[in-house]
Fold this protein.
Amino acid sequence: MDLPHWQLDNIYPSLESQELKDSIVELEAKQDRLEQILTKINQPSPQEFESIVKLLNQVYSTASDINAFLTGYIAVDAFNDTATGLRSSLSKLLSQRIIIGKKFTALVAKLDLEELFRASPLAKEHQFSLE
């Protein structure tokens, strides 16, 4: 009997696909880079802030894609060893964005947001989220 399943190949072709593997490697590298930046920087210039926001958005987007893809498999078949094993092995990587988010929030708390909004169109676009 065929069980219903989600159509997930618009995210990644398969659990074993090179595209998924590449996204995982890319996510790890971008998260590590972002964590380094957020640990070192105290008062970013408007351009540095924009770079951080762009990188943060990329991290959240890629992590969300990976998480949604794995969740789609596991929601339909909790005994899919490939999906559950991959999800388990990636749990630390996927939860790292929570730590990054807290570091970003701490950085934003130090900034003069009014000044930043005047100097950075991207910051102004994100004003609601930053205030």
Summary: The radius of gyration is 18 Å.
